[in-house]
Structures are given as C-alpha cells and as structure tokens.
C-alpha cells in the first residue's frame, strides 16, 4: 500500500510540473505574437509615409507647368505691335498675360515650400520673375495703345516710345530672375523625377 501511494504521488507531481511548463510556454508565445502584431502596422505605416519634400516639390512642379502658357501669345502680340497689326487684340492679349503672371504669384504664395532646398531664394526669384514679366506685358500693352493713336505708326512701322524701353528693362529683369529660379529648381526636379525647366520655360 505504501508503495502504491508513493507511485501515485510521483505521477501527480510530474503532471503538475509538465502543466506549469506548458502554461509558461503558452504565455511567452502569446507575448511574442502580440509584439509582432503590434509592430507590423507601425512598420507598414512608416513605409507608406510620404516624403514632405517630394510632396511640396510636386505641388510646385504643377504650378510651374502653367508658367509658360502665355509665352507664345505675348511674342505674337509684340510682333503685331511692331508691324501695326491687330493692335487692340495685341493689347488685350498682353494684359491677359499680365493677369496670368500675377495669378501665378498669388498661387505661389499659397503653396507650402518650406521643406524645399533654398526655398526662400527659389520663391523670391519666381516672384520677381513673374512680377517683372507682368510689368513688361503691361508696358507693351500701353505701347500698343500709343501706336494705335495719331502718328503712332508711320509707314506701317510702330513708333518707339518710353513704354518700349520700360518693357524691355522689365523683361530683362524677368529673364535674370528666371535663370536663378531654374538653377535652383532643376536639382530638385532631377532628384524627384520631375520636369526640369530653363529660364524660357518659366
């Protein structure tokens, strides 16, 4: 009888020990799975997080895509003024172009570009370029008004006036600012696979 009791007791102790081991292993496994589960979404979110510099670069790229829309109209209008053709239309087209340039300045002011490299110089150059272009357009439009007046077009050729000189100076300022802006923009465009632009594209 004594021997039987000892055997039963030994089996009970072994069973309790095995149960404890299994219980501990189960707890550890649960903790590991929980850790992995909680870490996975964080890693996924991190990989999907947008690069703030790229986001701002793409927004500015979209604005720059509109910056050259009126170039051909301006060139045609100035040529028509020189040869005294369609002066009313030329003046209207030039004033429309000036309005578009000023609108670009307004839109630029609403963009967040503070993450872009040398953003202060870039925005200052673009602002100066577009404002100077708008001033040139308006000066040429005023010249068209003068040419359409009395003795403004002797022998089919537009008479020069101070308006022309003012337009040319403003245009020169715009070109210099555009060269600076393109030099600052193109490295950013290259880094993010966006459109590079020369001064004449702005």
Rg measurement, Å: 36 Å
Extended strand count:
0
Q: In percent, how helical is the residue content? A: over 70%
Mean pLDDT: 85
Give the helices and strands as they follow along the chain: HHHHHH
Describe the structure.
This protein has 202 residues and is an all-alpha fold. The chain contains 6 helices and no strands. The protein has helices at 2-48, 52-64, 71-82, 87-110, 119-147, 162-192. Helix 3 (71-82) runs antiparallel to helix 4, helix 4 runs antiparallel to helix 5 and helix 5 (119-147) packs antiparallel against helix 6. The longest helix has 47 residues, at 2-48. The radius of gyration is 36 Å and the shape is elongated. It starts with a helix and ends in a 10-residue tail after the last helix. The relative contact order is 0.11. Mean pLDDT is 85; it is low at 1-39.
Question: What descriptors fit this protein?
Answer:
single chain, 202 residues, mainly alpha, 6 helices, 77% helix, 0% strand, elongated, disordered N terminus
């Amino acid at each position: 009888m004594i021997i039987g009791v000892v055997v039963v007791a030994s089996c009970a102790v072994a069973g309790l020990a095995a149960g404890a081991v299994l219980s501990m292993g189960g707890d550890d496994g649960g903790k590991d799975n929980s850790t992995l589960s909680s870490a996975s979404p964080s890693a996924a979110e991190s990989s999907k997080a947008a690069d703030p510099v790229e986001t701002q670069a793409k927004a500015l790229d979209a604005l720059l895509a509109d910056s050259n829309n009126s170039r051909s109209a301006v060139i045609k209008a100035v040529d028509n003024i020189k040869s005294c053709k369609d002066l009313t239309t030329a003046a209207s087209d030039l004033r429309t172009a000036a309005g578009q340039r000023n609108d670009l300045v307004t839109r630029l002011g609403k963009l967040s570009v503070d993450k872009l490299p040398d953003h202060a110089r870039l925005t200052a150059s673009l602002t100066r370029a577009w404002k100077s272009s708008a001033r040139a357009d308006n000066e040429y439009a005023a010249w068209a008004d003068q040419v359409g007046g009395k003795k403004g077009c002797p022998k089919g050729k537009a008479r020069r006036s101070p308006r022309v000189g003012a337009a040319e100076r403003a245009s020169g300022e715009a070109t210099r600012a555009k060269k600076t802006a393109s030099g600052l923009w193109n490295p950013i465009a290259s880094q993010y696979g966006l459109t590079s632009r020369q001064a004449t594209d702005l």
